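Reviewer 2 asked us to include a model.

Predict the structure of this chain.
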Amino acid sequence: MVARDGGFKLSYNAAILPGDSLVSIDATGTAEAALRDLIGGARTLKESGDHVIILEARQAKDVFEITGALRDRNTGRPIAQASIREVNERYAGITAADGSYRMRVSGRRERTPLLIARVAYHDTVVFVGRDGHVGTVTLRPRDHLERLEPCHSALCASVDDLGVTRLLVPSSVQQQANNLAQEKRFIQLSLVPTVGTSGKLSGATTSRISLNIVAGYVGGVNGFEAGGAVNMVRRDVRGVQMAGAANLVGGHTKGLQLAGAINHTMRSLNGAQIGGLGNVVWDTLSGMQLAGALNVVKGGMQGTQISGLANLTTRSCDGTQVSGGINAALGDVRKAQISGLANYGRNVSSTQFSFGTNVALGDVGGGQVGFLANYARTVSGGQVGFGINACIGEVRGGQVGSLNVARKCVGGQVGLVNLSDTISGNSVGLLSIALRGYHRVDLHVTEVLPLTIAARTGTPRFYNLFTYSPAVDSSGRWGFGYGSGTEVGYRGRHRGNIEWFAEHVNEQVEWIDAINIVGRISLTYGYVIKRRLIISAGPSFNVLFTDWRDAETGAYRSGIAPYTLFEEAQDALLLKGWVGGRLAVGVYF
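Predicted model (structure tokens):
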């Protein structure tokens, strides 16, 4: 009646209780108090799973051997890998393929209580006399297992599935841990997983203190664990773990893991991992990972990852990643990524900084600073680097790099090559092309070359100028040039242009293998006749730089300058200056 009201199974040897007494009880306290009122304080109560077992007092007797067999109650088939354990003692065995077992027991009680357990079956308790013969015991299968579906998630794995555990812990010891309910102990001492105070039952115990000289295998830790090489915990750890090589936890960790090589938690971690080589969390991380090489979080991360080589989060990162090598978050990054080589994220709310490459497949709320390359869909804070900046969407803070590419750039571009669809601001570089930017082609007439084709591209405030002068007169004079300029008053009909550029002039049909360059600064006024047609004119200040000479006489051969405002010779280079002008007609497009 007490067992029924308390929701547990009561097991005991009837011989240790008086059978000729009538009792009545009216209890409102705990089930333990009710049982004590019935059996007194001389007997021991032992809890195991959903069983409460009444034991007689221990006596100093000799160890002896027992034998028996185990079968399925429904089918009659033998049950292999079932646990046979002497209650409240270290002695345990496991059934063979034919369901038989042979093991030693302590002999401290006249009738020895045995807990028989197997995954997928209801466990039971039997008592064996000193003759050692248990006989055949049947177990009833758990009906609800027929409705369970197989689990394909990595989170269904346990520490027993790791290679290190398979190597160091015998399968029979692992099976004991699977079959038996967890037992709490204050301290466990181990030399190796099978040699210690808990023996082959170490995987079925949860200890407050676990000390392992070489390696240890325990069900759980609720306090402190230290190991010379490897700590293996099947379930949860609450507290501190220290290992010379590795900490391996099959459940959740709340606290600190410190290892010379690897910390590995197969569920969530709330605290910190410090590993000489790496740290791994299969579920979520709330805290910090510090590793000499690699940090991995397979779920979400809330905290900080710091590593020498790489940080990886397979989902979102609500914290910060700092690495000497690579940071990668397959989901969103709420804070920042700082790396020596590369950063990768889907959406980044703050900033990516790298001495190598930054990649965000989605939006960057802050900025990207990458010395080699930056890539994002949209960037609110700009992209800065010495290499390539690429944004397939909109950049609001501008781009600074060698090659800048954006669909829409609000803050301007500064680089060697700037490419965009739409730009608001300046585009400063050797080549700037915006499909919806500034485009103009003019035909020039100057005192140097009778016809020059000039193409402008970029933005009105800063554009690149490319010129080509074909040979149209009898001298065969031709040339080409490059420069930059800015347009003032570009919103009305009146336009002003300031340009600075240089032209290499060949004063014959053949290429002149010498310096023969005219540098110009020009001021022009233009009037827009129609929407796309403009006529302009204005003065220019010109300087000729030439070392083209006659091979026999050494005289300078250039005849470009119509007159000389000033002339100066510096070593082999001759400089001539004059004021000229130009007249042009052009079109916008």
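Residues 276 and 356 are 25 Å apart (CA to CA). The helical segments are 2-6, 31-39, 163-168, 171-179. We have added this to the supplementary material.
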